[in-house]
Amino acid sequence: MPCIWKPGKNARQKIYPERMKGAVMQVIERGESVRKAAKDLNLDRKTLGRYVEKGRSGQEMNFQVNHVSNQIFTMDQKADLMNYLIQASKLNYGLTPIQAIQTTGKIMKQQVMIGSIISCYGTRNYPYELHKLQGW
Fold this sequence. Notes:
By secondary structure, the chain is mainly α. It folds into 2 domains: about 15-55, Arc Repressor Mutant, subunit A (Orthogonal Bundle), CATH 1.10.10; about 70-135, no CATH class. The chain contains 6 helices and no strands. It starts with 16 loop residues before the first helix and ends with a helix.
């Protein structure tokens, strides 16, 4: 399961792309310090510093939040799993909550294993274990 942030005493701030882009330009073009720009625009100093380093090195800066990196299932797979569980319950073969969690866990383990095998071997050289996992 992806990491879920539980707010503590220091709640996370939402990063607005326009404000972050303006702060980076303020530091790079005007020569203002990262600390002062972060304080003026009420941004986290370390986050602004990372974006400034990317800007100075010439890397492409993406100011959008990326939560997809922690996901195991795609949105389509998530919808398919949800539809399967609903269909099973309509056919009077509903799983208990524990069985549903166990089934989802097994599918997640397969996804992670398949992803790690593909990242090691590439997409063309499938070892026997991958074929076995995918049911070929």
